[in-house]
What we know:
Elements: H1 12-31, E1 35-40, E2 44-45, E3 54-64, E4 68-79, E5 84-97
Antiparallel strand pairs: 1-5, 2-5, 3-4, 4-5
The protein binds coenzyme A.
The site of coenzyme A has 12 residues, from strand 1 and strand 5.
Amino acid sequence: MADINANGHIFGGWVLSQMDIAGGIVAGRIAQGPVATVAIEGMTFITPILLGDIVSVYAHEERRGRTSVAIRIDVVATRGIKEEQIELTSGLFTFVALNENHRPRPLPLPLPLPFPGD
Ligand SMILES: CC(C)(COP(=O)(O)OP(=O)(O)OC[C@H]1O[C@@H](n2cnc3c(N)ncnc32)[C@H](O)[C@@H]1OP(=O)(O)O)[C@@H](O)C(=O)NCCC(=O)NCCS
């Protein structure tokens, strides 16, 4: 119950941390190594999360720079017996690939697309 406020809603900070974890997994795969969250674009919490909601966090690459990658993260609740899908929030998180000195490191080149007929 530590994650629920007096209104019976989940704390926004809990949601943010789930988004950071999901985005960090996707960014870490792209970077093939450690990453750090450098920025989160302004976010809106559209609907409160209620006890019993099943919360899903979806993360995908939106933009790639030299050392950074922007990951779009969408959070959706599945609610009630009818399994209604409710959009909770969305945010653009920027992660930076880090070297062993915790400084920015160039991202590895993306894998080439398969040649037609391969
Ligand atoms: C991440 C970190 C190593 C970047 O260092 P830096 O000196 O700002 O690095 P740079 O200025 O070279 O920027 C690195 C990349 O981040 C991007 N970046 C920096 N600040 C940004 C911001 N506010 N928004 C979006 N992108 C940003 C730059 O555009 C650059 O991307 P590119 O190489 O793809 O063009 C440093 O800021 C850091 O350690 N921050 C703390 C990270 C952390 O602890 N996160 C957890 C929070 S609790």
